[in-house]
Design a protein that fits this description.
Distance between the termini: 54 Å
GO cellular component, one term: chloroplast outer membrane
Structural class: mainly beta
Order of helices and strands: EHEEEEEEEEEEEEEEEEEEEHEEEE
Membrane topology: Multi-pass membrane protein
Shape: globular
Number of helices: 2
Keywords: Chloroplast, Membrane, Plastid, Plastid outer membrane, Protein transport, Transmembrane, Transmembrane beta strand, Transport
CATH topology of the largest domain: Porin
Number of domains: 2
CATH class of the largest domain: Mainly Beta
Radius of gyration: 26 Å
Largest sheet: 18 strands, antiparallel
Oligomer: single chain
Family: Belongs to the TOC75 family.
Organism: Eleusine coracana subsp. coracana
């Protein structure tokens, strides 16, 4: 049963036309929206689904200002530069929950063209109509410009720090997300983008560089792009399938999570790139003591198993090589510290046990993780793993305590036999990480 407000109910119901011959024993029609006013308070109903539609249209705009420290001034002093974000949102367009959301951000308003990023999203749910529940599809179109520090062109642990390299992407993305069940979704679409590789002075960078023992820079590093000019254009199809059956038991996820993603190059763009990039991720959370769910009850003991494989066939620019190391890869290492490769495999195991201190529930846990480039680092043009003297594989072990979503953990890097303490938020391979040394 699907509840709508009066504006979205069938015309016959809005006009109070006789429809009694189409109602079943419960006073309902399967697969049809039913207004609340048609329900009999004296009867008991079996509800399969409840939906709420807000007919109000909303629009909003916001601006935020901040200041950033720039340590790259000519005198070596830190300069305070104003930055900010302007955002807007127009939601529930046409009363059908469509939305247009955008934001523009710059960390230097005095020279915004040097560091400006933007993103505009248009979301169109119910592609097949509000009344058609046979397919649940949502269309999304995005224009974007983003800049991130590359984990591919960084120095290994036994080298001096290499000059940072930034990957600037701007382009267009359009995709459709289809829900097969409540746990299974599929997204497929097209991505067209231009990639520009920049150095720390915001100039185009064609090759990676490293610091030589003499203190000078070696500029003969791996090429940063397919074209060799520092700028690439490409178009590719992108699809992913996600099945997530996890559920929370006293604040801890239990169940399985499966994610498969594939990018297929179309031969359009710089040097007509044709490639197939693919990633498969599997995570399983096992309830070891079958802890029942309930308010005030402790979380269950959980064994978490995680595995990931990623690979690429065909043209592979260095900026798209798979980086090994970091909180999303192998904990205890910095982003990309282990290498950048064409194929990688990662595995992790974590055991957590609940503890109670003064009626406050927490978890203590221990974990082990490993990542390996399968010898494929040499198959990346210029071999950035060898150029920056990185290992290509690594293992770590650690333990910690979790209170709510916050994790405080100590990790031992087996490659260098050194430890580090950091704070993380979330579960295994969570998206937020704070390194404290």
């Amino acid at each position: 049963m699907w509840f709508h407000d009066k504006a979205s109910t069938p015309r016959a119901l809005q006009n109070n036309s006789p429809v009694e011959d189409r109602w079943n024993a419960h006073g309902l029609v399967a697969g049809r929206p039913v207004p609340l006013s048609k329900l009999d308070a004296r009867k008991r109903y079996k509800v399969s689904e409840v939906g709420f539609h807000d007919r109000r249209r909303t629009g909003a705009a916001d601006a935020d200002t901040s200041f950033y420290l720039d340590k790259s001034t000519s005198l070596g002093w830190a300069a305070l530069k104003p930055g900010g974000t302007v955002s807007f949102a127009h939601r529930n367009i046409a009363g059908l929950n469509r939305s247009l959301v955008g934001s523009v951000t710059s960390s230097n308003l005095l020279s915004p063209k040097d560091d400006v990023s933007f993103k505009f999203d248009y979301v169109h749910p119910y592609m097949d109509g509000v009344e058609n529940r046979s397919r649940n599809r949502t269309f999304k179109a995005s224009c974007f410009n983003s800049r991130k520090l590359s984990p591919v062109f960084i120095a290994g642990p036994h080298m001096d720090e290499a000059p940072p390299i930034w990957i600037d992407r701007k382009g267009f993305k359009a995709n459709i997300t289809e829900s097969f069940t409540r746990q299974s979704t599929c997204t497929y679409g097209l991505v067209v983008e231009e990639i520009t590789v920049l150095d720390d002075k915001n100039k185009i960078c064609t090759h990676g560089s490293r610091v030589l023992p003499s203190g000078t820079l070696s500029m003969d590093g791996p090429p940063t792009t397919l074209s060799g000019t520092g700028v690439d254009q490409m178009a590719f199809l992108q699809g992913n399938i996600t099945r997530d059956t996890t559920e929370f038991v006293n604040g801890t996820p239990i169940g399985d999570r499966f994610i498969f993603q594939c990018d297929q190059g179309l031969g359009i763009g710089t040097n007509n790139p044709v490639f197939n990039r693919h990633q498969l991720s599997l995570t399983k959370f096992i309830n070891l003591n079958k802890q029942e769910q309930g308010a005030g009850k402790p979380p269950p003991a959980v064994l978490a198993l995680h595995g990931r494989y990623a690979g690429c066939i065909g043209d592979l620019p260095a900026y798209d090589a798979f980086a090994l190391g970091g909180p999303h890869s192998v904990r205890g290492f910095n982003m990309g510290e282990l290498g950048a490769a064409r194929n990688v495999v990662e595995g992790a195991i974590e055991l957590s046990v609940p503890v109670t201190v003064k009626n406050n529930h927490a978890q203590v846990y221990a974990f082990a993780e490993h990542g390996n480039d399968l010898g494929s680092s040499k198959d990346v043009k210029g071999n950035p793993t060898a150029f920056f003297q990185r290992a290509g594989q690594g293992t770590s072990f650690g333990f910690g305590v979790k209170i709510g979503p916050v994790r405080a953990e100590f990790t031992l890097d087996f490659n260098a036999s050194k430890g580090s303490f950091n704070i993380r938020f979330g579960e295994l391979n969570a998206p937020f990480h704070l390194d404290l040394g």
